[in-house]
Model the fold of this input.
Amino acid sequence: MAIGYVAEFSVLPRELRNTQLMLPDHPAIAQQEVDYTAGVTESAVFAAGVRYIRITSDTTARYLVGVSPQDAEANNSNYLLAGTVEYLAVKEGNVISWFVHA
Done:
């Protein structure tokens, strides 16, 4: 099965010199598991106030983020190696589309 995991956050913490850190401020506002085994699948719309997401997947995947990014199979999609974690800035109302990388 191909599952994409999405955690949604509204802020990232700052260190003592007020430098923003790429560390999530837990707990997450919301968490999603997106099963994209059967093909391109969109997440639910990100919660109100979400500005960052953390993604990972149990299989190597392609993904796109946007209002309705159904074309994750296209050449403009992003590559995510299985088991890696990425942090992305997003806009309220966006979704993430997943597709198994062949």
Q: What stands out?
A: The two ends are 14 Å apart (CA to CA). The longest strand covers residues 3-9. The chain is about 0% helix and 40% strand. The chain has one domain: 3-100.
